[in-house]
Amino acid sequence: MKKVITGNQAVAYGVILSRVDVISAYPITPQTTIVEELSELIASGRLKTKFLKVESEHSAMAALIGASTGGVRTFTATSSHGLAYMHEMLHWASGARLPIVLVNVNRALGAPWNIWGDQSDSVSQRDTGWIQLYCENNQEVLDTILQAYLIAETVRLPVMVVLDAFVLSHTAEAVEIPSIEEVDSILPPFCPDYPIDTQEPRAYSVITTPDYFMEFRYKVQKAMEEVPGVARKVDEEFRARFGRGYGAIEKYGKEGAEVLLMTSGTVTSTSRMVTKKMVEKGVSIAGIKVKRFRPFPSEEIYKAIQGAKKIAVIDRNLSAGVGGVFAQELRASLYSREERPQVFGFVSGLGGRDITPELIEEAIQYTLDHNRPEEEILWLGLKK
Amino acid sequence: MKKIEIPLEENLGHGHLACAGCGAAVAMRLTLKALGEKTVMVFPASCWSIVPGSWPYSSYRITAVHAGFVTGAATASGVRAALDVRGDDETLVTVWAGDGGTFDIGLQALSGAAERNEDLLYICNDNEGYMNTGTQRSSATPFLAWTTTTPAMKPKENPKKDIMAIMADHQIPYAATATIAYPEDLIRKLEKAKGIRGTRFIHLFSPCPPGWKMASEQTIKISRLAVRSRIFPLYEIENGRNYTIQEEHRVVSVKEYLKLQGRFSHLTEKDIETTQRNVDDTWERLLRRARC
Asked: For labelling, which of A235, A324, B244, B275 has a CA lying 20 to 30 Å from the CA of B159?
């Protein structure tokens, strides 16, 4: 069934189709229409899910930690300050190896106040042990939620599905909605190994001394290392069933191009258009969309950039004192490689400012015109 | 009154790490006896994150879910939701939190759970300070008490927060105070709470020998004197309105209670008089609430 729906509605469909047992959430713009939609569905009896309407995001994540430990499938959604407020519990969820799925609608963090799109909220959670998957359109949002449960419950790590504020969350486009029977055929019920069982009392997350703690963290890292293989298999099965797949990254544009443009989220859609136009004009340029940010797809990217001399990265986020986070991750992943193309780190679109086709063209042109970036951070669309 | 039987079964095992004379260890032993095996207990950070021992061991013979400091009531809400989804409405979900985890950092999550009337038994083990981190003041620390962050030359300036009044005003079905010198009363209240649905709150008063600078053999005595001096009266509140006070008629002065504890050793006669007046006022306030 094809319907014209917003990104936030696509999230709600993903939750219904995944047969989530417990939702816990707290409202924040631009996530709110997700919790509104889910509340309506539950109130009307169309969705048999328990929804804990808690008093904060911190409690939302804590409640899901309790519920997931209890052995059921869980979901929450948030944005910006809400995600930052959850930060402590994000560590707890991954440390406890709970396959919680969270949707984060990217939004800038104050001060000053801002409610528009910016990835600073999700990228600053990169060290919390969560898998992070970024989406480009509403179809991908729905599909990624289904894939997220498959990945999370296989490797036993939580997954954050990320979409852009307003450009996706509040913008409607046509989305193919699979039937629940089709989804059931690929997504089995959640069967954890050690759910709460008073017949077999266990102590969960008990204090662990330096003698053992490191091994727990080692296992989290090992689980992260399983993600590329598991996610590939999930994506292949998904493609076989529904005819749609996404990969950890996607390369598009001119084969063998020496200049590449790396983006994530909706900027990729604009970049596809710009690169296509430039290729038609004879420019040798190709694009790389990064879907999976954690674990960072170093292998996939390295394969895709063979032969490239320069990579322009557009970051809609800022780690002050360093620059754009995707650019930094790319630099780090290339350091030990034999071929290390120049990385041009552009920062743009903070706090929801549009990253227009003109700005993307400007970034590509700058990269074509320079052998190396003149500065560590190249500000794109900054008012002088 | 029906005779209270204290169950023989032990759900707090050997080898736990509580200090000698720990009031809370007695309280935990009694509580787990009363609640039985079909219990999940959520532990936000407190002494009770440490007391059962470290991985791969645990002294708890019930299901224990250790949780973040802030999150006792929220984590328990999630556990309850999961059990409900699984069709298990028999298992009792409880929280065992310290006074820091209840009066201070966990209050928002507790208030949220109480407002939603989550089907939980929340036990606040109150030893009047952050004892696990070395006796810092909490909002449960009494007026003029010494702690490491309220040194004797400038002891605590503010009275203890009235957590029972706060919980009562959430209009939860049941709230009660209890302490270990009155074990039958504690067991009766736990059993009563067990039979009620919705948010139930037990304010459990547990003397702490190192934190209160008291002799470890005085734990039960000090627990009893807290009730007799009306520092910690025993009472129940149903639906935020109906008060029942278990009045202790062998009333003693607060001085009898204070003088056994080093944390009050800097108090002057005038300080003790002020404390007595405060305790009398608080008792009157409780009686007024109970009469309404």
From this structure: B244
